[in-house]
Amino acid sequence: MSQPVLVAYATKHGATMGIAAAIADELRKAGLEVEVHPVAQVQDPSDYAAVVLGSAVYIGQWRREAVSFLETHAATLAERPVWIYSSGPTGEGDPIELVQGVRIPEKVLPVVDQIKPREITVFHGELDPEELGLGEKLIIKGVKAPIGDFRDWDSIADWASSIGETLKAESA
Questions:
Q1: What pLDDT, in 10s, does the model give residues 3-60?
Q2: DSSP character for 132?
Q3: Taking the CB of residue 143, how many other CB atoms lie within 10 A of it?
C-alpha cells in the first residue's frame, strides 16, 4: 500500500480518541502505515489509501465535526475503502442492541449511503463524571445512563484486525 491508512475521530472527552488509537495499533500490527488525527485536522482524505472514521455519539447524534467531515469529503471517501464506527452506549450487553440497532444516526445516513462504507459498527463508550459539565450530568442523570468505562478493547482489536487483514490482502 503506497499511501497510509487514516484513522480519524471526533471526540468530546477523549474516549473515542482512545478507540482510534487502539484501532491504529492493530492496523500497524498488520504491517500498515497509519496516521491518527482528529477529523478537524484532516485537510484531504485523498492522501490516504483507506479511512477508518469514528465519532462519539451524544443524545443520538454524531459530533458536528465528524458530520462536517463526511459531508465535505463524501466524494473522496466514496473512492476508497472506508470503515465507520460510533462510540457511545454505556452499560452491559451488545452495544448495537443498546442503541436499538441504530449503527449510525439517521441524520448522517444519506451521506453515509453515498460513501458506501465497508462496515459500520458501534462500540461501547465511557462516561466519566469528572469530565462532564453540569448540563451533561443532568442529561445523564435524566436518562439514567450507566457511568464508567465500558469500552471492549478485545472487540475493538478484533474489528481493527479484520480491517488490517482485508487491506493487506487487497494490496497484495
A1: 999 999 999 989 999 999 999 999 999 999 999 999 999 999 999 999 999 999 988 8
A2: -
A3: 8
* One-letter identity of residue 93: G
**Cα 123 from chain centroid (whole Å):** 8
- For residue 135, the SS3 value is helix
CATH number assigned to the domain with residue range 5-171, chosen from the 4 options 4.10.520.10, 3.40.50.360, 3.40.50.1010, 1.10.10.10:
3.40.50.360
**Distance in angstroms (rounded) separating the CA atoms of residues 125 and 98:** 11
Residue ranges of domains in the chain = 5-171
In whole angstroms, what is the distance from residue 76 CA to residue 146 CA? 38
Pairing of strands 126-127, 82-87: unpaired
Q: How far is CA 145 from CA 73, 87, 95, 134, 136, in A?
A: 33, 14, 13, 15, 11
